[in-house]
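Quick question: what would this complex look like in 3D?
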Amino acid sequence: MGIKTTASDPVYSVGLMTPESVRRRYVRSILVLCGLGLPVAALVVLIGEPYPYWERVMELIRQYSAGRGWPAWLPSAVVLLAVSSVLLGFVQGLVIVVHWLERKVAAHMQVRLGPMRTGGWHGWAQPIADGIKLFMKEDIVPESADRWLHFLGPIVAFVPAYVCFIPIPFGRDIQVFDMDMGLLFVFAISGLSVLGILMGGWASANKYSALGGLRAAAQLVSYEIPRVISIVPVVMWAGTVSLSGLMAVQSARWGGIFPKWFIFYPVVGQISFVIYLISSVAETNRTPFDIPEAESELVSGFHTEYAGMKFAFFFLAEYSYVFLASALGAVLFLGGGDSLPYLEWIPSYAWFFAKTFFLVFLFLGIRWTYPRMRVDRLMEFCWKFLFPWSLVNVFLAGLIFLWRWR
Amino acid sequence: MKTTDSNNVQNERVTPPFRSPVTPDEGELSENELWLNMGPQHPSTHGVLRVVLKMEGEIIREARPDVGYLHRGVEKLAENRTYSQFNILTDRNDYLASMLNNWAYCLSVEKLLGVRAPERAEYLRVIVGELNRIASHLVFIGTFGIDIGAFTPFLYAFGREREMVLDLFERLCGARLTYNYIRIGGVMADLPDGWGDQARSFIPHMRRCLKEYDDLLTYNPIFLDRTKGIGAIPKDKAVSYGLSGPNLRASGVSTDLRKDEPYGIYDRFQFKPAVGTTGDTWDRYFVRRLEIEESLNIVEQALNSLPEGDILAKGQRPTVRPPVGESYAQIEGARGWLGIYLVSDGTERPYRLHVRGPSFINLTILQEMLKGWKIADVVAILGSLDVVLGEVDR
């Protein structure tokens, strides 16, 4: 094939972009997307909810196992293992999608095109190529680094990010494991990632990294508090911390028509959502709260001394948390897999992903619009603004729910 | 054996007779302090500036700037080149505003020679000079955004608007960074067909884009929070440190060489030098943002009144032999007063040349300004001074 160098090649025609050519390219992209998307959408609608099929498959496996005389716990254990590994691959696939989306969204916000070559269509394979590149790179450990901590840092940062996906309902009855305290589980486990960042920053034996690690510890621990308090009204309202339970409560309708999502709950819902969104951006270390990384101040902060796959693990953790925060936001405030009225024929997982990616898009837009805050102002913002307001919000929610239950 | 002996001598650690005052020493630190070496390899020192910071946590206790990593000996090189040959090297001093460097140098040589550029050439100098000032300030706005953490304005300013100016220059003289367009006694080439219209269409576009920058940066609450009141330079201190250009005007001193001692034909244009009030980081940013508007006005007026005529003084030859003497010419560069001092001994090469680089003199205040601020403010303050290391180190 070789590399095209003609003027019709979009990469080279950037300088010649006219409104006409841009419009043509967008129209073509939309047509291609429709051509691919419509059949897939039709298939999704035809198949519908996957839960009945899953039940059938599980039944078959159990029968097979019973026929062989295997103990009853074996099939469920094997299935759980298989599902876990599928989830690991799935999370990484999501990271690839979110990463590609970030590059394209950022590029189009910044009057450029982003990756256009790798894989052919709009550089779809760029994150995969990046992953391969990172995998092939030499693993450099600074001479004066603490080798063990330097090795453990990225793992400790990434593993919680993956484990957090276990109780997330990707739609109605699509869940690895339905925990009664799913929400608490997610917050408890995701808090552990700070340790990895702190370890990485400390072990690098680099002053910039150490500053980055310390900033990260201070920031993530502080923003965890308004973030958790901001979801207390949801829990008070729904009366459960099980994520599937939260989704089920929001599947009801106000007046038989209006979706009973928490974001539509007057006053309390909106305040909760905004606080949750702001503190989630801070939790995922992204601009305007990216002071632990702070390219222009700390030269990438805690991961300055990381290369290759170790760097990739930090990277995977960051993007997994972006998706996780969006998924939680969708479940807590936007009804998760619940549909809009009269659109019940679209399966729940499609709704879930549409809402989640809407929030992901919001995250990306915020990142590429705002400058970075200064570290002391950031802490002031958390403790003097978000924290009191989240408490006021809980108080308000309590009053409203006392006055008129649900 | 002899060879091993000499090797041993070489391997012996020799104490240098001179110890740089910048070199950090652990002995100077009190408890809770550390040395942080910022640069010369650092994303926001704008080139190869090195600042050694004594920090207490995030707070700067002492700052020691270290310059010279980009030293090329431009002033010495001038002594071995003819007057016309050296014009090319002035491009490399402040490489973001090469036109203005050419201009200052040519003015100085013309003063020695007693030559004056023809009318049309003067207008062309004003047009390209102001466009170059706009391009330079656009780089400032973009990189200042990156220093503060906003990446998107950089690609707007650097990749869209500045690119249009560079396209204009490319059509005019073939180069996009080091132009060598302004020559002794005039300019290199006349405008190509349709250049004036292209330049005219840039002006309203740029005015629209300034509104976009206002939304993204100038009045953005986080941006204001990061820049308002940070690193303020009082009026008297700015003057005593010899600051010039936008950095001085931001402190409330209304000086602009284009107004105060108009060189070329600047007395024919209507414009108002932008002046700040407090001299903080935001003011230094905002003065430059206003200056883009003023420069657009000047370009518009110059384009409208551009006369016909020669572009090079009559009988001007590439090799000039100025009479014995000395001259100093200074212009309002993009970063301050840009002066060239020349001593001629009557040959075709300068006897001595000195560049008064505004970046170097503006940088001297950094040491005092950084004390007491946080590391995040270091990049904001350094970025707001808008130094070009090519000019600082020369």
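Answer marked as accepted. Chain B touches chain A at residues 34, 36, 42-44, 58, 145-152, 155-156, 159-160, 216-217, 220, 222-223, 225-226, 374-379 (CB under 8 Å).
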